[in-house]
Amino acid sequence: MVQLVVIIPTHDRNELLRRTLASLAQCSLPPGYARTIVVENGGRFGADAVVAAAAPALRAQYVYVEQGNKSAALNATLATAKDELLVFLDDDVRLSPGLLEAYESAAREYPGMFYGGPTGVDYESPPDELIAQRLPSSARGWQYDGVDGVVATPVMLGFNWAAHAEHLKVAGGFDASRGPGAPSGATGQESQMQRALIKRGILGKYVPDANVWHFVPKDRCSVAWLLERRYRTGVEHGLIAAQKFGGMLGIPMWTARKTAGAWLRHVCMQLVGDRAARLDAHLQWQVMKGCLSGLRRARREASSRTAPATHPVQPTAQLAHE
Question: How sure is the predictor about 312, in pLDDT bands with cuts at 50, 70 and 90?
Fold first, then answer.
């Protein structure tokens, strides 16, 4: 029997958390369902009361992590996990009633893998088409179009995927330098984990019946948010490039060329481009700026590892949800 545990990190979003737990309570619970763990992090904002009021069948448990960092919150639950399948959700999703059964069935039929399902969106206010086409998949919806459902790339979205605790531990846990609340500002802690699993021969399996709908507030359908998100995505790309090529190598020539090209195109499009061309050029410029920031950060961290020990300044707790 597959033992299944639901993990939900949260930070100061009690109404959305209440909505998510109510949706989870409508799911069919497979025989191996054990409990739901809600991890409040970065401050106490009353999530414990929301958890206490959840449906008894969920056997919901409250955990508090002082550090405002989603990866740190996930690692706190991972540290106490046994031989269990961990289903990762966010505090702002609505679930299909068969989601848990679908994950439990996939884990029985395809053991030794990680799993993920399709996502839709619940918009607070639908964005205009120009913005909608350029939103990340987390705010636009996602499904896998591969033939056999076997996934060898890190494409499962972090608010709807599942993995065996033993595999996550072997992979070293979640990278606290990525994700909401991370000092780097980079996205992609779940993608980084999936890359680590794939590197160890643990592939993904797409589970089409494990559906969630992600709540997207109107402020995440704006040009300002889109630009900021592309910058954070660029930071992630820079950190990945530093790992691949070595953090002490400085700024690779290809990055300098692409950054200069993105800046020139951005300047030109502001003068002669239409609205779409101006936005695309600005978005690419943000990505490259973020990439440079990620590369520089990796270089500083690599340098500090070779320098005499100092007393680091602890980062201020930041917003710790998607």
Answer: very low
